[in-house]
């Protein structure tokens, strides 16, 4: 036991030291992309991976000891710290696994579709070399209404992934051996063990949540299919089948906001245009950041440190390459918090800034914990907290901060709710099925021969979405979604879509809000902020169920909040669907 305690103490010191160095390297790399910073960054992540493997292996040797709760929790966090474990002591397999994961990510990153001469309807979208990268193909999927263009863009992107399949299968074998060495049946079981409950119980829990939201999803799917049928006709969208995946405005049919105009309620123009309001009031990028900071100070959080403003990146630099994708950082795991984004003065970035600073506030809140607990208690929490804050950007909030003069009438909400549902409700079954597929792959239930059919079986079962054409025998369509070759677990996104509404409902209940949930903003409510902070500052020190209970009073994930949020929309969808045959 003393060895275990000593090991944890040293591991914590090492992790603190090394992760600060790694974070600063990654920051410099993302802010100044050059040959050398790429080199430094690769070295640094290699070092962190090696450290992670060592710590996980050593930690797993203490797993059967009867240890004090916080030591046992830290041992378990170290043991579960890897996504794809290499087998202990097998240097050859370790190197092969590292090579495969690098190759898979690189083939995704470099992936492009190069149609044969004269056999394409996408010529006008292609680059000078005649090929289309994901950027061009996503542009087609997001904006075209021509089924031939959509189908070619959809199929074209999926030509990048057959080459990944054999490597992927080999990777599954190696990582499964590694997971076994750490005491897990397979990698899927290991991933499901990260939730402070039995791995099988976790699988049961996500099924329960899905069962709760399925009626809402089914109503949305039915309405969207009917409207797409009006646009494209029976030939392309038969009313008795799942929706062909190329028509939903997104390369993976995972969020459907781009088809809003095709499915929107008639005669409900948006009540206000936040982008226009920001322009009218002459908001600068910095004004947007200060406004979001004001949201958090209004509920009682300390102002952001001076260094936040000195060290963050707000504007796209003109003289160098940076990673513009918005992100929130805490460089020393204490208070060196920053955001990095290339802000545009528009509604989307107004939301994103609130979301990112939400991450910063969370990071700073849990810095009171021991280093290994400076994290969220499960991987759905961080995103849920950022998104929950963005849910408070209501007309009422915009009016209080002087952006909006008159509150829109209740009738105007339907369009806003539908637009949100096309992103957040449509996403749910996709968020669920990606790892359902991987669980089956890692358990051996699916084999390389059945990888692709198994993928489409789940897509159809959960999403009511189908492949728009016969898939080639060598197809590996899962590989055309970044998180598969990138090996990023996905259940976190499903969970965050459930939790964000659960948090929001709890916050609004605390505030004594009695109106419709989607109109509630916690802006200015210090009592809610105080309770919220109780959950945030726990970090990963306790099971997530305890953190959830600290704020919501409930220790179970609960999907009834998302149902309450979208209740007015569900009522409208049911009216629309009254004479339709739903289901697939
Ligand atoms: Zn985020």
UniProtKB/TrEMBL annotation:
<dbReference type="Pfam" id="PF01401">
    <property type="entry name" value="Peptidase_M2"/>
</dbReference>
<feature type="binding site">
    <location>
        <position position="359"/>
    </location>
    <ligand>
        <name>Zn(2+) 1</name>
    </ligand>
</feature>
<keyword id="KW-0479">Metal-binding</keyword>
<feature type="binding site">
    <location>
        <position position="383"/>
    </location>
    <ligand>
        <name>Zn(2+) 1</name>
    </ligand>
</feature>
<dbReference type="GO" id="GO:0008237">
    <property type="term" value="F:metallopeptidase activity"/>
</dbReference>
<feature type="disulfide bond">
    <location>
        <begin position="508"/>
        <end position="520"/>
    </location>
</feature>
<keyword id="KW-0862">Zinc</keyword>
<keyword id="KW-0325">Glycoprotein</keyword>
<feature type="binding site">
    <location>
        <position position="492"/>
    </location>
    <ligand>
        <name>chloride</name>
    </ligand>
</feature>
<feature type="active site" description="Proton acceptor 1">
    <location>
        <position position="356"/>
    </location>
</feature>
<feature type="active site" description="Proton donor 1">
    <location>
        <position position="483"/>
    </location>
</feature>
<keyword id="KW-0732">Signal</keyword>
<dbReference type="GO" id="GO:0016020">
    <property type="term" value="C:membrane"/>
</dbReference>
<protein>
    <submittedName>
        <fullName>Peptidase M2</fullName>
    </submittedName>
</protein>
<feature type="binding site">
    <location>
        <position position="195"/>
    </location>
    <ligand>
        <name>chloride</name>
    </ligand>
</feature>
<feature type="disulfide bond">
    <location>
        <begin position="324"/>
        <end position="342"/>
    </location>
</feature>
<feature type="binding site">
    <location>
        <position position="355"/>
    </location>
    <ligand>
        <name>Zn(2+) 1</name>
    </ligand>
</feature>
<dbReference type="GO" id="GO:0008241">
    <property type="term" value="F:peptidyl-dipeptidase activity"/>
</dbReference>
<feature type="binding site">
    <location>
        <position position="355"/>
    </location>
    <ligand>
        <name>Zn(2+) 2</name>
    </ligand>
</feature>
<feature type="active site" description="Proton donor 2">
    <location>
        <position position="483"/>
    </location>
</feature>
<keyword id="KW-1015">Disulfide bond</keyword>
<dbReference type="InterPro" id="IPR001548">
    <property type="entry name" value="Peptidase_M2"/>
</dbReference>
<dbReference type="GO" id="GO:0006508">
    <property type="term" value="P:proteolysis"/>
</dbReference>
<feature type="binding site">
    <location>
        <position position="383"/>
    </location>
    <ligand>
        <name>Zn(2+) 2</name>
    </ligand>
</feature>
<feature type="binding site">
    <location>
        <position position="359"/>
    </location>
    <ligand>
        <name>Zn(2+) 2</name>
    </ligand>
</feature>
<feature type="active site" description="Proton acceptor 2">
    <location>
        <position position="356"/>
    </location>
</feature>
């Amino acid at each position: 036991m003393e060895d275990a305690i000593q090991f944890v103490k040293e591991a914590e010191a090492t992790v603190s030291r090394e992760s600060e160095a790694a974070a600063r390297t990654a920051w410099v790399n993302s802010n100044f992309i050059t040959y050398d910073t790429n080199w430094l960054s690769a070295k640094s992540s290699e070092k962190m991976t090696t450290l992670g493997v060592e710590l996980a292996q050593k930690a797993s040797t203490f797993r059967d000891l009867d240890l004090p709760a916080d030591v046992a929790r830290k041992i378990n966090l170290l043991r579960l710290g890897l996504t794809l474990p290499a087998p202990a002591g097998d240097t050859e397999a370790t190197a092969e696994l590292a090579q495969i994961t690098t190759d898979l990510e690189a083939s995704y990153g470099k992936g492009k579709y190069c149609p044969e001469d004269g056999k394409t309807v996408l010529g006008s979208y292609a680059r000078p070399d005649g090929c289309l990268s994901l950027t061009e193909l996503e542009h087609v999927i997001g904006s075209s209404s021509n089924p031939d263009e959509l189908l070619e863009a959809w199929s074209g992107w999926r030509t990048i992934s057959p080459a990944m399949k054999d490597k992927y299968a080999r990777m599954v074998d190696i990582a499964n051996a590694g997971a076994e060495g750490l005491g897990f049946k397979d990698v899927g079981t290991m991933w499901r063990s990260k939730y402070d409950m039995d791995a099988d119980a976790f699988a049961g829990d996500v099924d329960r949540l899905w069962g709760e939201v399925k009626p809402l999803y089914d109503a949305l799917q039915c309405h969207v299919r009917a409207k797409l049928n009006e646009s494209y006709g029976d030939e392309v969208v038969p009313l008795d089948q799942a929706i062909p995946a190329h028509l939903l405005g997104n390369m993976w049919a995972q969020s459907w906001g781009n088809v809003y105009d095709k499915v929107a309620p008639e005669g409900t123009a948006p009540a206000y245009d936040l982008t226009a309001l920001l322009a009218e009031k002459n908001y600068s990028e910095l004004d947007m950041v200060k406004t979001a900071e004001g949201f958090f100070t209004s509920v009682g959080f300390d102002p952001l440190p001076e260094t936040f403003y000195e060290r963050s990146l707000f504007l796209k630099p003109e003289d160098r390459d940076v990673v513009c994708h918005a992100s929130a950082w805490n460089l020393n795991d204490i208070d060196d918090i920053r955001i990095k984004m290339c802000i545009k003065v528009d509604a989307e970035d107004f939301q994103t800034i609130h979301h990112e600073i939400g991450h910063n506030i969370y990071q700073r809140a849990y810095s009171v914990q021991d280093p290994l607990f400076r994290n969220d208690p499960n991987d759905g929490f961080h995103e849920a907290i950022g998104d929950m804050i963005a849910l408070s950007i209501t007309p009422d909030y915009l009016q209080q901060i002087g952006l909006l003069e008159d509150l829109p009438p209740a009738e105007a909400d339907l369009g806003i709710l539908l637009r949100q549902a096309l992103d957040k409700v449509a996403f749910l079954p996709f968020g669920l099925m990606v790892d359902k597929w991987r669980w089956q792959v890692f358990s051996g239930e699916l084999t390389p021969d059945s990888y692709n059919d198994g993928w489409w079986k789940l897509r159809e079962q959960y999403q009511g979405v189908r492949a728009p054409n016969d898939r080639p025998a060598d197809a590996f369509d899962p590989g055309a979604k970044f998180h598969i070759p990138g090996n990023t677990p996905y259940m976190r996104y499903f969970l965050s879509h459930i939790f964000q509404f659960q948090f929001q409902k709890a916050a609004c209940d605390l505030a004594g809000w009695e109106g419709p949930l989607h109109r509630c903003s916690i802006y200015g409510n210090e009592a809610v902020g105080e309770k919220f902070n109780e959950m945030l500052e726990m970090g990963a020190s306790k099971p997530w169920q305890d953190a959830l209970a600290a704020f919501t009073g409930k220790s179970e994930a609960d999907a009834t909040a998302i149902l309450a949020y979208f209740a007015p929309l569900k009522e409208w969808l049911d009216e629309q669907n009254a004479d339709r045959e739903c289901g697939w």
